[in-house]
Amino acid sequence: MAEEFTKEQLLEALRAFRKRLKVYRQDDESSYGGRGLTSGKTSGIFAVKPPQGYPPEIWQKLVEQGKLVPEGNGTYSIKD
């Protein structure tokens, strides 16, 4: 049985995903300098596992809508 999600639920899940991706990238970039400051290099992180607390079906729905791209091993990236 396919679960239906409201527009608000999908938007909330996508925001949580974007926030997680942003945090992982910032953490990766801040570790370059070793002093807590970045050296200007950008992070190579482009895909992350989605936040827990949302059912797997919601991520699949966002893939169907073209908002996320599955990258394998349970990770997703933002569609450009």
Strand order of the largest sheet: 1-2
Helix tally? 2
How many beta-strand segments? 2
The proportion of residues in beta strands is 5-15%
State the helical fraction.
Answer: 40-55%
The class by helix and strand makeup works out as alpha+beta
Low-confidence stretches: none
Shape: elongated
Supply the number of structural domains: 1
Radius of gyration: 15 Å
Secondary-structure element series: HHEE
Oligomer: single chain
Give the integer mean of the pLDDT values: 87
Give a written overview of the molecule.
With 80 residues, the protein is an alpha+beta fold. It has 2 helices and 2 strands. Strands 1-2 form a two-stranded antiparallel sheet. A hairpin with a 2-residue loop joins strand 1 (68-72) and strand 2 (75-78). The longest helix has 24 residues, at 7-30.
Give the tags.
80 residues; 11% strand; 41% helix; two-stranded antiparallel ribbon; 2 strands; alpha+beta
How would you summarize the topology of this molecule?
Elements: H1 7-30, H2 56-64, E1 68-72, E2 75-78
Helix pairs in contact: 1-2
Summarize the structure.
With 80 residues, this protein is of the alpha+beta class. The protein has helices at residues 7-30, 56-64; strands at 68-72, 75-78. Strands 1-2 form a two-stranded antiparallel sheet.
